[in-house]
Amino acid sequence: MPGQLTGQLTTHVLDTVHGGPAANVAIELWQVPPSGDKTLLKLVHTNADGRTDAPLLAADELQAGVYELVFAIGAYFDRSMPSLPTPRFLDRVPIQFGIANPEAHYHVPLLVSPWSYSTYRGS
């Protein structure tokens, strides 16, 4: 349909210690307006493939602006590596990013260990 937005926001989590997807990671999706008063849009969990079952935002849900994903990595590593010392080095990993073109696909993966993380704009 002409004029209909086709963009989407997706993510996945890869556990770099174990070399595979990170299942059952809680992810919060926040909208961050210029005022700075964030609004929680969704709380989801990764599936066995380290992905969400559906896009976080799609079509007209995806608007230009600033968003933040917060990954509950500490809880995930508590389950997969219970002998890690406390307090955790990483607990909640926030990634704040901008959506400039709501008709595009924005994929924000998280590659993570208990001690480091990285991200990029994927496809």
Automatic annotation (TrEMBL):
Domain of life: Bacteria
Pfam families per UniProt: Transthyretin
Reaction(s) catalysed (UniProt annotation): 5-hydroxyisourate + H2O = 5-hydroxy-2-oxo-4-ureido-2,5-dihydro-1H-imidazole-5-carboxylate + H(+)
Membrane as UniProt keyword: no
Major enzyme class: hydrolase
Keywords: Hydrolase, Purine metabolism
Annotated EC: 3.5.2.17
GO terms (BP aspect): purine nucleobase metabolic process
Entries under PROSITE patterns matching the protein: TRANSTHYRETIN_1, TRANSTHYRETIN_2
GO molecular function: hydroxyisourate hydrolase activity
Entry coiled-coil feature ranges: none
InterPro entries to which the protein is assigned, alphabetical: Hydroxyisourate_hydrolase (IPR014306), Thyroxine_BS (IPR023418), Transthyretin/HIU_hydrolase_d (IPR023416), Transthyretin/HIU_hydrolase_sf (IPR036817), Transthyretin_CS (IPR023419)
Residues in Transthyretin/hydroxyisourate hydrolase domain copies: 9-122
Function: Catalyzes the hydrolysis of 5-hydroxyisourate (HIU) to 2-oxo-4-hydroxy-4-carboxy-5-ureidoimidazoline (OHCU).
Protein family according to the UniProt entry: Belongs to the transthyretin family. 5-hydroxyisourate hydrolase subfamily.
Name of the protein: 5-hydroxyisourate hydrolase
Classification of source organism: Bacteria, Bacillati, Cyanobacteriota, Cyanophyceae, Oculatellales
Gene3D superfamilies in UniProt: Transthyretin/hydroxyisourate hydrolase domain
Assembly description: Homotetramer.
